[in-house]
């Protein structure tokens, strides 16, 4: 026999279950508009966007790297490839991932040190730095070059380009 306490528990549990299923199946557009109306009541938020040039450079670099990795993965998955070719492809993929991590590390270091948005491309012994700044100072360029070079034991060819 069901007593009052069990009946209330089942009723509340059923209600919570129905509401959670409704929330999960609710279209995401409805959630986004609900959140927008809540944030409109609060103080306005300021969004800072990256330079279009830096975004374009990043997209181009990512596409180039993705294409190289896909080519190397096709060598890895090809049954006719020799084990030596597969090892070389694997090492190259590993190297590309390490380079991308190094580029991101340097970008973060410059952002923390100089409060500047940058795009860094590493190729062989050369490092190309594109800085999003209207200030074109040779002193700033030298400081950025020294900061980057401090991460390496061997000498690197570093170029700095200012863009706004």
SSE map:
Blueprint: H1 4-25, H2 28-41, H3 52-77, H4 83-114, E1 117-123, E2 126-132, H5 138-149, E3 157-163
Parallel strand pairs: 2-3
Antiparallel strand pairs: 1-2
The CATH architecture name of the domain at 52-163 reads: Orthogonal Bundle
Q: In what range is the share of β-strand residues? A: 5-15%
Q: In terms of quaternary structure, what is this?
A: single chain
Output the CATH class name of the domain at 52-163. Answer: Mainly Alpha
The separation of the N and C termini measures: 77 Å
Structural notes for this entry:
This protein has a domain at 52-163: Stage III sporulation protein AH-like (Helix Hairpins), CATH 1.10.287.4300. It is 65% helix and 13% strand. The chain has helices at 4-25, 28-41, 52-77, 83-114, 138-149; strands at residues 117-123, 126-132, 157-163. α3 (52-77) packs antiparallel against α4 (83-114). The protein is flat and about 85 Å long.
What is the compact description of this entry?
The protein is α+β, with helices and mostly antiparallel strands and 164 residues long.
Give a quick set of tags describing it.
single chain; flat; three-stranded mixed sheet; 164 residues; alpha+beta; Helix Hairpins; 3 strands
